Amino acid sequence: MSVGLLTIVAGQSSLAYAQTGKQTPKKVQKTGKSTGKTTPRQNVQAAKKTSRVKSRQNVQPVKASFGQIAGLRSTSDALDLRSSVALVVDQETQEVLFRKNDHAVLPIASLTKLMTGLVVSEANLSMMERITITQADVDTEKGSSSRLAVGTELSRGELMHLALMSSENRAAHALGRTFPGGLHEFVSRMNQRAQMLGMTDTRYVEPTGLSSRNQSSANDLALLVGAAYKEPMLRELSTSHGREVEVGSRTLQYNNTNRLVKNPEWEIGLQKTGYISEAGQCLVMQAKVAGRKLIMVFLDSAGKLSRIGDAERVRKWVEKKSAYQSSQNRSTGQLPG
């Protein structure tokens, strides 16, 4: 059964960084005579004017993603996706059902953690070993926050769970830092594993995805998803709905960053989300749709929920194509397959 292939290539246009206009001066020179007294109405007007000035001053320039700068977001496609890059592959036959800028090399944010998990899993390290979060695990790249305070002690298995399910950066960094040989050796292993998988467009510089120098293409990431899916632990931890973790005297609740794992319309076998401003919203998944095991990759999606919306559009498209093919087979007396 064939769903058909859609191919989209990038246009030639480019988008620049968003710019803000001149800020309103903080001091406004008054004209005319002043009695030194103000009416209630004047006080209200002055307050509104001050509020508008502060609001304009707090507006920050929007940092464009690498895909946006390259003009990839101007690429149209038949499914009206908001992701600059998309790829849908049949996991069993390797048939490409949909592609859009799939060779573009872009930052991949926390999709990096899928390779982090793969390297740790394949090393057969003890998941019971206790690991302490240190100052070295604190994010100095983006200044992101974490509920895992310095001094927190968790098992390697717990850190794996939080890294894959909740995209916990300190957890992922600690996994790399405590790898035999240290962080440098771990990153080297990440790149070696990528080469072994044929991920020729991929480069890793650290295990969290906070660095925009961690880059890959949709084609490479599809290979990574296929390899990670073979690891039962990665399938289980990445699709878990949530987990409570004991940290000192507190119990912390962590949830999955991908809301689709709780959606009964989806049968997801593996997933990972990612976001930094340079990468946009990212998502990779292995899911069963219309009886087919599919690998989906979405990169540089604009908007917080747009990657989820794109996945839904792809699912409905595949289901519609499958239903049409089934009806055609019934009308001609052919058996599906």
Features of the shown structure:
337 residues; alpha+beta; Beta-lactamase; six-stranded mixed β-sheet; two-stranded antiparallel ribbon; 12 strands; globular
Architecture overview:
With 337 residues, the chain is an alpha+beta fold. The chain has a single domain (64-332), classed as DD-peptidase/beta-lactamase superfamily (Beta-lactamase, 3-Layer(aba) Sandwich). It contains nine helices and twelve strands. It has helices at residues 40-57, 66-69, 112-122, 156-165, 169-177, 182-196, 218-229, 232-239, 306-332, and strands spanning 6-8, 83-90, 96-100, 106-107, 130-132, 153-155, 215-216, 242-247, 250-255, 268-276, 280-289, 292-301. It has a six-stranded mixed β-sheet, with helices on both faces. The longest helix has 27 residues, at 306-332. Residues 6-35 and 53-57 have low confidence and may be disordered.
Classified in CATH, the superfamily is DD-peptidase/beta-lactamase superfamily
CATH names the topology as Beta-lactamase
Tell me, rounded to a whole number, the average pLDDT: 87
Annotation, overall tally of beta strands = 12
What order do the helices and strands follow? EHHEEEHEEHHHEHHEEEEEH
